[in-house]
Amino acid sequence: MSKTICPCGSNKEFASCCEHYISGRDAAPTAEALMRSRYTAYTLNDEAYLRATWDERTCPKERIVDGGATKWLGLEVKKHITQEKEATVEFVARYKIGGKAHRLHEKSRFVKFDGKWFYVDGIYE
């Protein structure tokens, strides 16, 4: 039986990488781990996980995932900076919509509340 590699770019098996965060068994220990698991959730169209890990002050009311219209191709983490309860993760995500390739370069902000990391927002490069 072949092992499924996690979409987050870690080159680890999904079961030993993002799956235990997405399933709710564990909270992501770092902002980078949360960002990687959120990317994986986008590849899985997991609206519930994305909402659960988004700071409620900035989480949009409209639908987050697009039901599969976006084909996620890869993730590269450029930089991860943590200062106590705040962090920034810079990344590049590649994807296709309608056969056209796109590149998302973002500096995401994260905050830590009650021992859990949450996505706040991002600045697009």
TrEMBL record:
<protein>
    <recommendedName>
        <fullName>UPF0225 protein H8K33_11705</fullName>
    </recommendedName>
</protein>
<dbReference type="InterPro" id="IPR032710">
    <property type="entry name" value="NTF2-like_dom_sf"/>
</dbReference>
<dbReference type="Pfam" id="PF17775">
    <property type="entry name" value="YchJ_M-like"/>
</dbReference>
<feature type="domain" description="YchJ-like middle NTF2-like">
    <location>
        <begin position="30"/>
        <end position="122"/>
    </location>
</feature>
<dbReference type="InterPro" id="IPR048469">
    <property type="entry name" value="YchJ-like_M"/>
</dbReference>
<dbReference type="InterPro" id="IPR004027">
    <property type="entry name" value="SEC_C_motif"/>
</dbReference>
<dbReference type="Pfam" id="PF02810">
    <property type="entry name" value="SEC-C"/>
</dbReference>
<dbReference type="InterPro" id="IPR023006">
    <property type="entry name" value="YchJ-like"/>
</dbReference>
<comment type="similarity">
    <text>Belongs to the UPF0225 family.</text>
</comment>
